[in-house]
UniProtKB/TrEMBL annotation:
PANTHER family: ESTERASE, PUTATIVE (AFU_ORTHOLOGUE AFUA_1G05850)-RELATED. It comes from the Bacteria. It holds the Pfam family Erythro_esteras. Gene3D superfamilies: EreA-like (biosynthetic domain), EreA-like, domain 2. This is Erythromycin esterase family protein.
Length: 420
């Protein structure tokens, strides 16, 4: 397999800096949903190249929505900024530092995102609102922040009294847990079905009454999305102590529901870019994840919208440095990413040539890249010494993605705060 795969990579790849993005854009064609991954949350080149590809999708192909692996309330502050709805005189750096204050802050409060956000604000300035590109969070860790958003909005608008009472009743379930989702998770065994269903009832009512809410600064979308987060986060935290696969699936199904809501809100045919880790956007059915009963965003989006209307771009690196931490919540550091073994996907990409490159997978050539091989994935928690035992996902890379961007030697992300 090794020699054949290396030869196929050499024959089919294009240098990233010499026509690589152009080949990707041509291959994307008329797809309305483009999912752009990353092999870690702490690699500068992944963020930079993803931003450059997104800029071209926006300016050359008319994409108007970016949905990212971040919490709705925090990312909504960025959306308000790039659309000109926020405070006058602010700057992307201040918005990012203020909005992303929960670990891992560096995922979004970094120099690479700052540069893109400033570009997007400049691009949007002077455009009519329907032609501005939005920046939205589709993750679900903001249980209490989203509860606050819904209650504050309804409390400030007394004409929505019916939904306010529903919200107060639904969210009373969470009050005893001192804003600690893990405490809620430990206590859910004692809850009644009524408490669980009340959050769903609230979301149903908000959607039913959505036409009553102001469209000013997307207030109507904001209240519905925060209620959706509360409903799905409740299920996620309830399940996270029971089964990893179930809670993973709940999270990714929430992100798909959020994507669908954004498309519904902006109109059928809306062109949307999705920024998430490879493990979310690379089709799970082409990996060992399926053996654990796990699904993901990439798989569900392909199934719902069809392969012709969707496009998934993966990332990978041979070696370098990365921002991560030894354990959840601990201080971050710049860590060495060791060189991949030859038997891995990244090792094969390196053996085919040390330049950064792009691969396009088509119906004609996918079979060349579909032997199962380990493909590196680094999270916010990382231990390089043990990565061979847990950081490689067996994958049929040609089926997992539609395109792949390879960075031979990568460097760590640049947090806005002095965390390293």
């Amino acid at each position: 397999m090794t020699r054949k795969l290396i030869a196929a990579i050499q024959e089919q790849s294009v240098p990233l800096q010499n026509g690589g993005l152009e080949r990707l854009l041509d291959s994307i064609g008329e797809a309305n949903i483009v999912m752009i991954g990353e092999a870690s949350h702490g690699t500068s080149e992944f963020y930079k190249v993803r931003a450059e590809l997104s800029k071209r999708l926006i300016t050359e192909k008319g994409f108007t929505v970016i949905a990212v692996e971040g919490d709705w309330p925090s990312v909504q502050s960025v959306n308000q900024y790039v659309k000109g709805y926020g405070e006058e005189g602010s700057a992307a750096r201040n918005v990012l530092l203020k909005s992303f204050n929960r670990w891992p802050t560096w995922m979004w409060a970094n120099e690479e995102v700052e540069g893109f956000v400033e570009w997007l604000k400049t691009y949007n300035d002077g455009k009519r609102k329907e032609f501005k590109t939005g920046f939205y969070g589709i993750d679900m860790y903001s249980l209490y922040e989203s509860i606050d958003e819904v209650l504050n909005f309804l409390s400030d608008n007394k004409k929505y009294e019916v939904d306010l009472e529903l919200a107060r009743k639904a969210f009373s379930c969470f009050e005893p847990y001192n804003r600690m989702p893990e405490h809620y998770a430990l206590s859910t065994a004692h809850f009644t079905a009524e408490c669980i269903s009340e959050v769903s009832t609230l979301l149903t009512s908000l959607r039913k009454n959505e036409e009553l809410y102001s469209t000013n600064h997307e207030e109507d979308l904001n209240v519905v999305m925060n209620a959706m987060v509360a409903k799905n986060a409740e299920a996620y935290y309830r399940e996270m102590l029971q089964d990893d696969a179930i809670s993973w699936n709940t999270r990714d199904m929430h992100m798909v529901e959020a994507i669908n809501e954004l498309i519904r809100y902006h109109g059928e045919g809306t062109k949307i870019i999705i920024w998430e880790h490879n493990t979310h956007i690379g089709d799970a059915s082409a990996t060992s994840m399926k053996d654990e009963g796990m699904i993901n965003v990439g798989q569900l989006i392909r199934e719902q919208y069809g392969k012709d209307n969707t496009y998934a771009v993966g990332f990978g690196t041979y070696k370098g440095t990365v921002i991560a931490a030894d354990n959840w919540g601990e201080p971050t550091e710049i860590m060495e990413v060791p060189a991949s073994k030859l038997s891995t996907w990244e090792g094969q990409m390196h053996a085919a040539g040390e330049e950064d490159k792009v691969l396009i997978f088509t119906e004609e050539n996918r079979h060349l890249f579909n032997s199962t091989i380990g493909h590196r994935a680094i999270g916010v928690v990382y231990n390089p010494e043990f990565e061979a035992y847990g950081n490689y996902v067996p994958s049929e890379v040609g089926n997992r993605y539609d395109g792949f961007i390879y960075i031979d030697q990568s460097t760590a992300l640049h947090p806005l705060k002095d965390e390293v």
